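Extended Data, panel c. Modelled sequence:
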Amino acid sequence: MRVVSSPVGLGSGESVESVPGQALSVTEVQWASVAVELLPCPSAARWLSEALLATAHAHGTSTPTRLAVPTIERASAVEDVELGALHPPAQRYCEVRYSVGAADADAVGIADAPEMERRSLLARGFDVSTDAPAEFEIGGQLAFDVLAPVELDVSHGEHLTVRIVRDPARWFAGVDLATQDEAERARQFAENLRDSVVIRIGPP
């Protein structure tokens, strides 16, 4: 079962919605996807906990139903990002959990984005509200999970794709460079990014 992120396609220099009277031009947005997990329906949870053996990797702990390979993603991507694969046993699953968290030194893509080490989110750009544009940066180690209900009955040999989709339209809504401190901006941005995520499961 493939796990992919759909491209956002947010180009450098694009204007984004924030708060009235504030105009932002975004040059980059990055985040660290750290895990994707299929959660069994309650009746199957005990059986699966006994049947699945965890496999330790440098990036975390993966099982047939949990992909734990931290990967740096960029909003500028224009193609699917392959996060990895799940190999769930035939069973009923009722939720998918997607996690964003701080990247470690071994995260996929960290060589091209060393500024993301120990960060979960990073956004950079310019406040162009005045004639003298000012740089801004929003980032931190804030982690969040997205839980999406699903009705999935996996049978042997079934080929499906878990697709993570994000809508950048409201990522900067409520982010106020004039009145919020760094922690408040990061929290608002993280909440917006979390709320923009939609998880779909379907054919490849």
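The chain has two helices and 14 strands. This feature is highlighted in the accompanying rendering.
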